[in-house]
Amino acid sequence: MTEHDDRCAVPATAAIRTDAPMFNRAAWLRILPFAAYLAFIVIGDVLQRLGVAPDALRWLYPAKIALVALLLALFWRQYKELSRFHLAPLHALTALATGVLVLVLWISLDAGWMVFGSPSGFDPRVDGRIDWLLVAIRIAGAALVVPVMEELFWRSFLMRWVDAPDFASVEPSQLSIKSFVITVVLFGVEHNLWLAGIVAGAAYSLLYMRHRNLWSPILAHAVTNGLLGVWVVRTGSWSYW
Questions:
Q1: Confidence bin at 1 (pLDDT 50/70/90)
Q2: Where does the record place the CAAX prenyl protease 2/Lysostaphin resistance protein A-like domain (predicted)?
Q3: What is the pTM of this model?
């Protein structure tokens, strides 16, 4: 398929059925992997409050990534914008550079007022020694699974759905300022580093709108997360995980 498949502009005269469901099947296919990811975060928080040992909670992340990856695999053929990887060389270079820039800003925008709460992060050490299997799973999940899951939800679905319930018909380059602002702010407050999250969300959204290709923000997001994982391990800054 071409970069413009499944992204034709919404006709100005298109009528919205009043009896139409809030979310159609295409929406649910993008919501469910994201919801599964959030569910594990809630489960981990509840178990922590109940006094479950941190060592046991470390394995929630591999379970979470496994479930999300399974859901993405099951639904993959329904994600038409991901049916094949195609990025113009200049777009790919721009996405790579954006991913690096977002990483630099992510680890810099950490003043007290820029952070929600006191994130405990993900500490892969067991008895003072790093569990490299956990590190590998964490980096692989953050770089290969999370970007696909989040970009399908935030950019492919929510950003377009704000403009039209039949979101798949919305052309990325025609997205409104309202959809941009709402999605970017929500993406930011999803993270403890809320300002860094807003900056990242804005960068990924602009890539999507300019390149009209979901693989562009996915690539940038993957670069940010992958390099962040390497930086966290090298510096021991576990709170950033």
A1: very low
A2: 136-226
A3: 0.89
Query: Chain centroid to CA 76: how far?
Result: 16
**Phi, psi for residue 192 in degrees, rounded to 5:** -60, -40
Structural domain includes residue 17: no
* Average pLDDT, integer, range 172-180: 97
d(CA 49, CA 31): 27
Max distance between CA atoms of the chain, in angstroms, equals: 64
Give the span between the Cα atoms of 167 and 152, in whole angstroms.
12
Confirm whether 18 is domain-assigned: no
Place of tokens 């809030």: 22
Q: Tell me what the pLDDT averaged over the chain comes to.
A: 91
Give how many domains the chain has, as a whole number: 1
Give the pLDDT of residue 8. 42
Assess if residue 187 is contained within a domain. Answer: yes
Whether the CB-CB separation of 228 and 236 falls below 8 Å is answered with no
**Domain boundaries, position 144:** 25-240
13 falls within a domain: no
